[in-house]
Amino acid sequence: MSQPSERPQLTPQFCFNQTALRDFLRISRGTIDDSITQNLNALLTPAQRGFDPASTSIRQLSAPGSSRAISSEHCDEFKTRVLFPSWKVRSDVLDYCATVATSPDPDDPDSIMRQVEDDKARERVVDERLDPYSGRYFPQEARTESLAMLMRNERAVEKIIRMRSWGVIGERCGFSSEMADDAFDKWRATERM
Length: 193
What we know:
The protein is an all-alpha fold. It has a domain at about 10-40 and about 70-105 and about 145-190. It has seven helices and no strands. Helix 4 runs antiparallel to helix 6 (about 145-175). The radius of gyration is 25 Å and the shape is elongated. It holds the Pfam family MIX23. Belongs to the MIX23 family.
């Protein structure tokens, strides 16, 4: 069985290093959610009935999911020991980095440069009749703004990935009336107790 993602050390530097942040999310998603079918296949016990030589002489077609169903005990164990802990780690990282993105950033190395550019733009005299494009000024965004946009995008990606993973689990383990977020929230509540 796969192992849940390990939680990285959460610091503002980790969040502002968008390459490290994206790599963590990509690897975590790839290990658990992108390979959900392989992870679920690993739960099946091979050769439960033993090998029957006659089984190779006839092509056996079965209804989707009928012979590939996984016991509810194995599914529940996978969800509680691998899937939900990985989702929790990613949720914690996304929540922490979203908090960093909405907090003041006194250590921003580009803040002085942005302030100088803003001052220059305000002092500039523009005659748009001579050059209609000279009045354009595109201020550089702060790294907190860039991080906030990345967090919005990653949360959307996370939502899609969770829906897809939950759908695969539903096909293989039996559909549940719960939505992925509801099941995850219920699991999270029991983990805190």
